[in-house]
């Protein structure tokens, strides 16, 4: 049972909330709700973005900034994300 000691009611509620959020907004970056809200308010139409590692967030950021540089070392994953 020691392995699950951190599973408090508050922890379980927070995890459930996050899981529901991810299901409701599958196109949002894999970040917390609050992080997405902060980024949405900070990003401006003339900003330039840079990220290391591409994925779900790449498409989300690319829709909000005119230029995004994404560094990805896996050619197969790069091709998959680039298609989106």
Entry keywords:
84 residues; mainly alpha; two-stranded parallel ribbon; 49% helix; globular
Instruction: Give the C-alpha Rg.
Output: 16 Å
What distance lies between the first and last C-alpha atoms, to the nearest angstrom?
Answer: 43 Å
Order of helices and strands: HHEHEH
Tell me the structural class.
mainly alpha
Strand percent estimate: 5-15%
Q: Count of helical segments?
A: 4
Number of strands: 2
Strand order, sheet with most strands: 1-2
Major β-sheet, in short?
A: 2 strands, parallel
Shape: globular
Whole-number tally of structural domains: 1
* Average pLDDT level: 89
Describe the structure.
- The structure is a single chain.
- The longest helix is centred in the N-terminal third of the chain and has 16 residues.
- Strands 1-2 form a two-stranded parallel sheet.
- Helix 3 links the parallel strand 1 and strand 2.
- 49% of the residues lie in helices and 12% in strands.
- By secondary structure, the protein is mostly helical.
- It has one domain.
- 5% of the residues are buried.
Topology:
Blueprint: H1 9-24, H2 33-42, E1 48-52, H3 56-62, E2 67-71, H4 75-82
Parallel strand pairs: 1-2
Brief description of this entry?
This protein is mainly alpha-helical and 84 residues long. Helix content is 49%, strand content 12%.
